[in-house]
């Protein structure tokens, strides 16, 4: 299934799986770039209960690479022609670092990005390598 119905089903299934694992689940769909950045800021600075040992961030959507920096494109970005890209390292990964978010220092932080960072024509280019990000 593709399109909004498929996305909503994926979110429902993933939320259900994490619920069964006793995670507190918060999900949002179809955010603009500024909404995504704002939500990440709130999520990374929230004071979580001590019982929360893991923080999982999952993004599904579009992405790309601009001057060697990977970015994501929220679904809404395509429709509004908003030119603001959300750069993975500086706008997402860094938000969850111990330096930026001391309350997360002793928690495992898992950030998953389910998006293509290249166009179909670039996928077979040997100069394009997978992006690895570090929280510290």
What does this structure look like?
It contains four helices and five strands; from the N terminus they run ααβββαβαβ. The strands form two sheets. A three-stranded antiparallel beta sheet has the order 2-3-4. The chain has about 140 residues and is an alpha+beta fold.
Based on the model shown, name its key terms.
136 residues, alpha+beta, three-stranded antiparallel β-sheet, 4 helices
| Proportion of residues in extended strands | 15-25%
Tell me, what's the shape?
A: globular
CA radius of gyration is 16 Å
Low-confidence stretches: none
Oligomer status = single chain
- The strand order across the widest sheet is 2-3-4
The percent range for helix content is 25-40%
Structural class: alpha+beta
- Give the ordered list of helices and strands: HHEEEHEHE
Please tell me the overall pLDDT: 76
Please report the total strand number as a whole number.
Answer: 5
